[in-house]
Specification:
It is a single chain. This protein has 157 residues and is mainly α. The protein has a domain of 72 residues: Four Helix Bundle (Hemerythrin (Met), subunit A). It is built from six helices and no strands. Helix 1 packs across helix 4.
């Protein structure tokens, strides 16, 4: 188990060690990938993709949008912390000797952060679900069941 954790920790570090493959000439302007995605999702109303196809009132849309925005308010800080952990892991992984105590501390920190992200996501989904009417909740449950079935069928092929 411990070896698996170490391997799962080292794999992302290998990606950090590789040279950047991004085209440096294309930034966040309209000609780059960001511009293409902006065009594709320009009608995004702040509702998660799981709610596409479910008719929401304007009040519901506004409330869901505020819930999502509140969830993402500290996203920059969380991402900064995430990348700092990865940098520390890369530095530790490619040192002359692997300091097991530091590795264990990084793995514990990453595990705790991941657990917090999962908890935050579950709380957000629950809050969004409670904004919906009973009929909309039923539509969402049915939609999620259809998606699950589609994923099961895809695994069989």
């Amino acid at each position: 188990m411990r070896n698996k954790l170490i391997m799962m920790s080292v794999i992302p570090a290998l990606f950090l060690a590789a040279p950047a493959m991004a085209d440096k000439d294309k930034g966040c302007d309209k000609s780059g990938k960001h511009g293409q995605m902006a065009k594709k999702y320009k009608k995004f109303d702040g509702a998660p993709p799981m709610l596409r196809g479910i008719e929401l009132t304007e009040a519901q849309k506004a409330e869901i949008k505020s819930l999502v925005e509140a969830q993402h308010a500290d996203k920059k800080d969380r991402m900064q912390s995430h990348w700092q952990t990865h940098k520390q892991l890369a530095k530790l992984s490619f040192a002359d000797e692997l300091d097991q105590a530091k590795l264990d501390a990084l793995v514990a920190e990453a595990t705790e952060a991941h657990a917090q992200r999962l908890t935050d996501r579950a709380n957000l989904n629950s809050a969004i679900f409670n904004v919906l009417t009973a009929d909309q909740q039923q539509q969402l449950v049915q939609k999620m069941a259809e998606f699950e079935q589609k994923m099961q069928d895809r695994k069989k092929h």
